[in-house]
Design a protein that fits this description.
The structure is a single chain. By secondary structure, the protein is of the alpha/beta class. It folds into three domains: 2-201, Rossmann fold (3-Layer(aba) Sandwich); 211-297, N-(1-d-carboxylethyl)-l-norvaline Dehydrogenase, domain 2 (Orthogonal Bundle), CATH 1.10.1040; 299-433, Rossmann fold. 42% of the residues lie in helices and 13% in strands. The protein has helices spanning 10-21, 33-40, 51-60, 70-75, 97-112, 131-140, 161-166, 178-188, 203-234, 238-246, 267-280, 286-298, 301-309, 337-347, 360-367, 401-407, 422-427, and strands at 2-6, 25-29, 64-67, 79-82, 119-123, 147-151, 171-174, 198-201, 318-322, 351-355, 372-373, 386-389, 412-415, 431-433. Strands 3-2-1-4-5-6 form a six-stranded parallel sheet, with helices on both faces. A six-stranded parallel sheet has the order 11-10-9-12-13-14. Helix 1 (10-21) crosses helix 3, helix 5 runs parallel beside helix 6 (131-140) and helix 11 packs antiparallel against helix 12 (286-298). The longest helix has 32 residues, at 203-234. The N and C termini lie far apart (67 Å).
Length: 443
């Protein structure tokens, strides 16, 4: 098939590349000239494991193209995917200006060129319930009739997005048009050869499904974080509790790891958008309001431990930080707990040197030059009063503690991701703080 993907951000670039990998001709459209120039020169503009290989291959095979020409892309494609940003507004709602703006442009393009060929417009962006209708209304305002708007939410995990797209758990397609459903099914059948379902539903249900999935996962994480804080008060061990819960097949093992709060581009934005939409429809989801509040507070839990250890005075203290991205295997810093934590340390008069395997360049957008960025994890430790672990990159899991001890001023670690075993830290004579587990006091 000939496809257009409007927007070459995280979702758009993965979507376009993976569709091309299955033999489709894909026209990726963007109005960011600097980004387009990089893409046309075969430069991947996001960090995502596994993407580079298929990106290069499909450019070489002349199945993947990059352009700023929306008109030609729309007219030459049967299915047009909208992969546009829907940033969180000041009131928590999703900002639909980009989605609706492109919808209006598509309507004008189709009207001016005769409206002869049936077009399927697909909302791939995460959008509030009712957006498919608003997009359809925008296109119809131009006098266009020969089209359908489909809701096809993405369920891509950053760090695993290519695998998630090529081997999805499920595909959700929202439409009441039989032809659109047939064509969407044909498009996605190569991805579900192992029998995973393509689930047909109405557009409103498809829109809510994406928000419901992310909000539920955010709720699980938040419950474990709050439970971990309780465990510290009563002398329980959250790791043991997690294992006891995870073996219950009604619960399962995933999203039960406590830490310093969720971040990224999806969970915070989607939780707040669903809170806003539910309030607007006079059916407030009170549990999600609590989830959002608890998550914001959780990002400061490690700072509270730091303050308590140093008697409330951080002036002149220097801290090493390992990990800046909101999770491993991505350079995404959006809503990252590290930003909140580091800003709080700086506010208390401390200095920070940090290392992250891939996100230093991204981090500079959020933290600028207020901290020092180290080329490797051990350089970040030089003369630090303590080490803070904020992202669970694999390379941090088993460091050379002889080197760590030689570089740190004090053998003190604040572990926001429970990477290390407290018993090992005790053997090594570290003072060690984690989440939901008893602190270890070194001599």
């Amino acid at each position: 098939m000939n496809l257009a993907v409007v927007g070459t951000g995280y979702v758009g670039l993965v979507t376009g590349t993976c569709f091309a990998e299955m033999g489709n001709n894909v026209f990726c459209v963007d109005n960011d000239k600097e980004k387009l120039e990089k893409l046309k020169n075969a430069e991947v503009t996001i960090y995502e494991p596994g993407l580079e290989t298929i990106f290069y291959r499909n450019i070489a095979k002349k199945r993947l193209f990059f352009t700023d020409d929306l008109k030609e892309s729309v007219l030459n494609s049967e299915i047009i995917f909208l992969c546009l940003p829907t940033p969180q507004g000041d009131d928590g709602s999703a900002d639909l200006q980009y989605v609706l703006g492109v919808a209006e442009s598509i309507g004008k393009i189709l009207k001016e060129n005769g409206d002869k060929v049936f077009k399927i417009i697909v909302n791939k962006s995460t959008v509030p319930v009712g957006t498919a209708k608003r997009v359809a209304d925008k296109i119809a305002q131009a006098g266009v009739k020969n089209f359908d708007v489909v809701s096809n939410p993405e369920f891509l995990r950053e760090g695993f997005a290519v695998d998630d797209f090529l081997k999805p758990d499920r595909i959700v397609v929202g439409t009441n048009n039989e032809y659109s459903m047939q064509r969407m099914r044909e498009l996605y059948e190569p991805f579900v050869r192992q029998g995973n379902p393509i689930i047909a539903m109405d557009t409103a249900s498809a829109e809510v499904t994406k928000y419901a999935a992310n909000s539920y996962l955010a709720m699980r994480i938040t419950f474990m974080n709050e439970l971990a804080n309780f465990c510290e008060k009563v002398g329980a061990n959250i790791d043991m509790i997690r294992r006891g819960m995870g073996t219950d097949n009604r619960i399962g093992k995933r999203f039960l790891f406590p830490g310093i709060g969720y971040g990224g581009s999806c969970f915070p934005k989607d939780v707040n958008a669903l809170i806003k939409t539910s309030a607007e429809n006079d059916s407030p989801l009170k549990i999600l309001t609590a989830v959002d509040q608890v998550n914001k507070a959780q990002k400061l839990v490690l700072v509270e431990k730091v303050l308590a250890h140093f008697g409330g005075d951080l002036k002149g203290k220097h801290f090493a930080v390992w990990g800046l991205s909101f999770k491993p295997n991505t350079d995404d810093m959006r809503e990252a707990p590290s930003v909140v934590i580091i800003n709080e340390l700086l506010k208390h008069g401390a200095t920070v040197s940090a290392h992250d395997p891939v996100s230093a360049r991204t981090a500079k957008f959020y933290l600028q030059d207020r901290i020092t960025y180290s080329e490797n994890e051990f350089d970040a430790l030089n003369d630090a009063d303590a080490l803070l672990l904020l992202t669970e990159w694999n390379e941090f899991r088993n460091p050379d503690f002889t080197v760590v001890s030689s570089k740190l001023k004090n053998k003190v670690i604040f572990d926001g991701r429970n990477i290390f075993d407290p018993s090992k830290m005790k053997e090594l004579n570290y003072t060690y703080y984690s989440i939901g587990r008893e602190a270890v006091k070194g001599s």
